[in-house]
Design goal:
Strand content of chain A: under 5%
Structural class of chain B: alpha+beta
Shape of chain B: globular
Order of helices and strands of chain B: HEEEHEEHEEHEEHHEHE
Largest sheet of chain A: none
Helix content of chain A: 40-55%
Largest sheet of chain B: 3 strands, mixed
Distance between the termini of chain A: 45 Å
Number of strands of chain A: 0
Helix content of chain B: 10-25%
Number of helices of chain B: 7
Oligomer: heterodimer
Structural class of chain A: mainly alpha
Number of helices of chain A: 5
Chain lengths: 164, 243
């Protein structure tokens, strides 16, 4: 077996040192995000489905609305803003100090997209308020979807419990 | 030597199978959650007919209404402030004849802006409206250079207080979209047309060019209409009378 070249050895030492330094710097626990309450319950889908799949639901609505003109605003970003967006009388909550529905969790998870650079973060009125409890309307597809996501969600929840 | 042609039967079967499955499953683990409502209709082509004889040279109601509808704010920098409609004055130097007309995105049948777009962000909807998908736009501004009407605009500055119906953001191209949010909501009258009508000028008519019974088609049949830069053969959906 060939001996390890000196450059490799020094690299290994450097990596080990930096790893130890990183660990030393990360002893504190990251506080859980403070998430603003929704103004209306329930959501268009079950909370578990929304937690995991809201990016896909929004992407689907985005493609349908922008490209094909098929708009279902209560399922799109406007629908989100109606219940979770800034209220009419408060200024736009883009300061990270205040709990926000989207940004608090996105910051916690290290997600950097900001829809509200272009989209309005304030509710506009009552015209696009979603129909409450809409999730059981599309039951066959939703059932299949929930079945797929529930397994993953339970795994994540179990992992979170173990961490705590 | 002849190449064997594609197996069209197989393609048709695949397309049919895709259409059959599209309502439920797109890919493993990706399911369409809802029945889709009708979108932009293919048999429709929205257009504008602008009568320059009715257009008051001193009136800018259409521009104001457009800027209010889409919350287009200005920073007193005319070179970079976006403007979806411009009032253009045409003058014949020989006779001194003048006409004023609003010029916006002409919603070409063969839009050069969509041709040059490197990401496919600029596209033509099935109902003929040329739009920018700002999610895909990278802000290269090729479309601004390609448009022979100078109708494409670029958002140079940070935008705040957008209308929920009209999202806009810095670093993307934009232009008149015939108030697509109104059309999709079942109220097909753009803000400029409404403002012109309320002002009493009625210089702009909006309608479906493909419907021979629509007001715009009957007006075009009776009095004709000019396409700006018809020599480019882009077949714009905005037509002008009296130029």
């Amino acid at each position: 077996m060939a001996a390890t070249p000196p450059s490799c050895r020094s690299l290994t030492l450097l990596l080990g040192l930096s790893g130890a330094m990183l660990q030393a710097g990360c002893t504190g626990e990251t506080p859980a995000p403070e998430i603003a309450e929704a103004r209306d319950q329930p959501c268009v889908e079950e909370a578990e489905t929304m937690r995991r799949d809201h990016p896909r639901i929004l992407a689907q609505e985005k493609a349908a609305a922008v490209v094909d003109g098929r708009r279902t605003p209560e399922r799109g970003l406007r629908g989100c803003v109606e219940c979770h967006g800034d209220s009419e009388d408060t200024p736009v909550r883009l300061e990270p100090a205040e709990p926000q529905f989207c940004a608090s969790c996105h910051q916690y998870a290290g997600v950097s997209n900001n829809c509200f650079e272009c989209h309005s973060s304030r509710p506009d009125g009552s015209e696009v308020r979603h129909r409450l409890g809409q999730h059981h309307v599309f039951s066959p597809a939703t059932q299949a979807w929930s079945g797929f996501t529930d397994g993953l969600l339970h795994e994540v929840l179990a992992m979170e419990e173990m961490e705590q | 030597m002849t190449q064997p042609g594609p197996d069209l039967r197989r393609r048709r079967f695949l397309a049919g199978a895709a259409a059959f499955c599209g309502g439920l499953t797109v890919a493993p683990g990706v399911t369409l959650l809802q029945a889709q409502t009708a979108g932009a209709a293919q048999q429709v082509r929205w257009g504008l007919l602008i009568d320059t004889n009715r257009c008051d040279p001193d009136c800018d109601a259409c521009i104001q209404a457009c800027h209010e509808e889409h919350r287009i704010t200005h920073h007193e920098r005319p070179r970079t402030d976006p403007q979806w409609i411009r009032k253009v004055t045409l003058r014949d130097p020989e006779t001194g004849w003048q006409a004023s007309a609003p010029v916006m995105c002409q919603h070409c049948e063969r839009p050069p802006c969509a041709d040059v777009c490197p990401t496919g962000a600029t596209f033509k909807r099935p109902d003929g409206i040329v739009m920018v998908n700002r999610h895909t736009c990278i802000g290269c501004r090729y479309c601004l250079m390609a448009c022979p009407y100078g109708a494409r605009q670029f958002v140079h500055e940070k935008v705040t207080e957008q209308r929920p119906d009209s999202p806009r953001g810095k670093g993307t191209a934009e232009g008149c979209n015939l108030c697509v949010h109104r059309i999709d909501a079942g109220n097909p009258e753009p803000a400029c047309v409404e403002a012109c009508r309320e002002r009493g000028n009625r210089a702009i008519v909006f309608g479906n060019l493909n419907d021979p019974q629509s007001g715009i088609s009957r007006a075009l049949e009776a009095h004709g209409g000019t396409r700006l830069r018809a020599d480019l053969r882009l077949n714009p959906a905005v037509r002008y009378q009296g130029v």
